[in-house]
Amino acid sequence: MFFGEAQLPRRGTVKQARSARTRQALIEAAAGEFDRHGYAGSSLAQISKAAGISMGALTFHFSSKEELAATVRSRGHYATTAVVHEVSATEAAPAQAVVQLTLALARLLQDEAVVRTAARLTQERPGAAADWDSAWAPTISDWLHAPGAEGSDPVAFSTLATLLVLGTEADMRRRAAAPEAGHSPVRQLSRVWELSLSGAAAPHGAGTGDGVPCRSARGHG
User: Fold this and answer.
1) CATH architecture assigned to 1-63
2) Where are the domains of the chain?
3) In the chain, what is the straight-line distance between the N-terminal and C-terminal CA atoms, in Å?
4) Which three-class secondary structure string do you get for the chain?
5) Stretch 149-162: mean pLDDT, rounded?
6) How confident is the model at residue 13 (pLDDT cuts 50, 70, 90)?
7) What is the pLDDT of residues 106-142, one digit of tens each?
8) Class of domain 72-221
9) What is the reported pTM?
């Protein structure tokens, strides 16, 4: 075997790794631009500049802004689905699991630009790719309507949880224009749940898992 032949697989591996890094950098830059400026306010030129990657390299990986946006949305959807599975694996009582999930989603929105972008582009371009809320809202409804799930009104509780998540995302976007030191979307949402669950109609077993009390607790079954 010639020396040059032995090096071919390694060269190919290095090239593939470089291509993967370039693609990831473009996705991260696109997420940042879409998150800040929305779909209409972002351009491939802006994304190319933000990533520090040539336009030629960008169009090699993504033929259009629409394709790039769909990829970012897919990443955000995947990250959200992973969190849903993590909460589901805790086997918490349905109402408690719902509250825990909303707090996990708030944390995800706070930390991940691809998730914020998925949420924003769902509003700006519904149906252009998998809508962000489809990754979690149906699960909330399923948990609360599952056999054995207790609560005064699963439809109302499901609606409340959905509105709180969407409201948290909207509030985060509003605050992005004038950031407040020390503000935590997770703590804010936890406090909202505390106030909501202190009412007489709080579903049995509802608790945030973040130190938020509830009126009663229940086990499975």
Assistant:
1) Orthogonal Bundle (1.10)
2) 1-63, 72-221
3) 67
4) CCHHHHHHHHHHHHHHHHHHHHHHHHHHHHHHHHHHHCCCCCCHHHHHHHHCCCHHHHHHHCCCHHHHHHHHHHHHHHHHHHHHHHHHHCCCCHHHHHHHHHHHHHHHHHHCHHHHHHHHHHHHCCCCCCCHHHHCHHHHHHHHHCCCCCCCCHHHHHHHHHHHHHHHHHHHHHHHCCCCCCCCHHHHHHHHHHHHHCCCCCCCCCCCCCCCCCCCCCCCC
5) 87
6) confident
7) 999 999 999 999 999 999 998 877 899 999 999 999 9
8) mainly alpha
9) 0.81
Tokens coding 121: 């582009």
Structure tokens at 116: 């914020």
- Burial of residue 162 (CB within 10 Å: 0-12, 13-18, 19+) is middle
Residue 62 pLDDT exceeds 70: yes
Give the pLDDT score at 214. 40
Query: Which residues lie below 8 Å from residue 174, measured CB to CB, with a gap of 6+?
Result: none
